[in-house]
Amino acid sequence: QLQLVEHGGGLVQPGESLTLSCAANESTLEYYAIGWFRQAPGKEREGVAWISTLDRGTTIYSDSAKGRFTSSRDNAKNTGYLQMTNLKPEDTAIYYCATDLFADGSRWLREDGYEYWGQGTQVTVST
Q1: pLDDT for 25
Q2: Residue 103: what pLDDT?
Q3: Cβ neighbours around 105 below 10 Å, total
Q4: In b/e form, how buried is each residue of 16-28, taking b as 16+ CB within 10 angstroms?
Q5: Which residues lie across from 21 on neighbouring strands?
Q6: Could you give the C-alpha distances from 12 to 19, 63, 106, 111, 123, in angstroms and in order?
Q7: How many angstroms separate the CA atoms of 43 and 32, rounded?
Q8: How many CA atoms lie less than 13 Å away from 115 in the CB half-sphere?
Q9: Burial call 43-63: b when 16+ CB within 10 Å, e when fewer
Q10: What are the angstrom distances between the C-alpha of 73 and each of 24, 39, 66, 119?
């Protein structure tokens, strides 16, 4: 069974950067699109970024992530990445990666379309 593990969270100051990774235990990750979600305290989980399989070469970002976050993947390492720049206090949340059953991104915000989820990694942006 595919398992995902996120790494890279931490405490940073506003304006700084972090790169999260989503490592899979199997090479089958390359056949899945990857979604990135986050959940802030007291709020519902929300999608922030999505990356297709390499053959499609598509990324999607939420309005809050556009221009600051970049999703990528390295299939040789069975890993997806979320590079986050110019972090803001409102980016504070637990960040999750998940594998999307739908390849075209048309349902990327629907959590019921995701099959495997990581355990999450905490990102805190604060002075």
Answers
A1: 95
A2: 86
A3: 17
A4: eebebbbbbeeee
A5: 7, 81
A6: 12, 22, 33, 28, 8
A7: 27
A8: 14
A9: eeeebbbbbbbeeeeebbbbe
A10: 11, 22, 18, 19
Q: What is the 3-state secondary structure (H, E, C) of 3-60?
A: CEEEECCEEECCCCCEEEEEEECCHHHHHCEEEEEEECCCCCCEEEEEECCCCCCCEE
State how far the alpha carbon of 114 is from the alpha carbons of 16, 27, 97, in Å: 30, 18, 10
| Confidence at residue 101, expressed as pLDDT on a 0 to 100 scale | 84
Total number of residues shown for the chain: 127
Report which secondary-structure segment, H or E, holds 100: strand 93-100
Six token digits for residue 71: 């999703």
Six token digits for residue 44:
């519902």
pLDDT < 70: residue spans in the chain: none
Please count the other Cβ atoms lying within 10 Å of the Cβ belonging to residue 33. 25
Any idea which residue has 């790169």 for tokens? 19
